[in-house]
C-alpha cells in the first residue's frame, strides 16, 4: 500500500479528520473505529512504515512509547493499566499496513489473547 492511498497516512496528513487524543509533529493517536474495549485508541507515526519490521529509525519506538504514555494518561488509563498491542503481518492479525499501536483499556484484559 503506497503512502498516497494509505488510510492512516490520510489521517496523519489531516485529509481524514479525527479527534486526536494526542498529537505532535511525529505521532497522532485517535479512537479506533471498531473498538474492542471500552477504551480503544490507535497511536500512529505520521511517517509511513508498513510494519514494525520496516522501521529503520532506531529512536522512533522509544518516542512512540512516550506518546503511548501521554495518550494513556490523557485517557485516564495510567493508574488502572492498559494493554498495548502491535499486530504484525498476517499471523499477527494486521489489517492496516501502516504501523500502529493499539491502546486498550477500561476493562481487565485476558491472557493469552486469541
Ligand atoms: P490491525 O488489525 O492491528 O491492523 O488494526 C487496524 C485497526 O484500525 C482496526 O482495529 C480498525 C481500525 N481502523 C481501520 N480503519 C480505520 C479508520 O479509518 N479510522 C479509525 N479510527 N480506525 C480505523
How does this model look, in words?
This protein has 114 residues and is an alpha+beta fold. The protein has one domain: HIT-like (HIT family, subunit A, 2-Layer Sandwich). It has three helices and five strands. The chain has helices at residues 7-12, 60-74, 89-92, and strands at 22-23, 27-31, 39-45, 83-85, 101-105. A five-stranded antiparallel β-sheet has the order 1-2-3-5-4, covered by helices on one side. It binds 2'-deoxyguanosine-5'-monophosphate. Residues 7, 30-34, 42, 87, 93-96 line the site of 2'-deoxyguanosine-5'-monophosphate. The site of 2'-deoxyguanosine-5'-monophosphate (DGP) has 12 residues, from strand 2.
CATH fold type: HIT family, subunit A
Write out the CATH superfamily name: HIT-like
The rounded Rg comes to 14 Å
**Straight-line distance between termini:** 27 Å
Tell me, what's the shape?
globular
The proportion of strand residues reads: 15-25%
Which structural class fits the helix and strand makeup?
alpha+beta
Poorly predicted segments: none
Q: Main β-sheet: number of strands, strand sense, barrel status?
A: 5 strands, antiparallel
- The side-by-side strand order for the widest beta sheet comes to 1-2-3-5-4
Per DSSP E runs of 2 or more residues, the count of β-strands stands at 5
* Number of self-contained structural domains: 1
Task: Identify every distinct bound molecule in the structure, by name, code or SMILES.
Answer: 2'-deoxyguanosine-5'-monophosphate
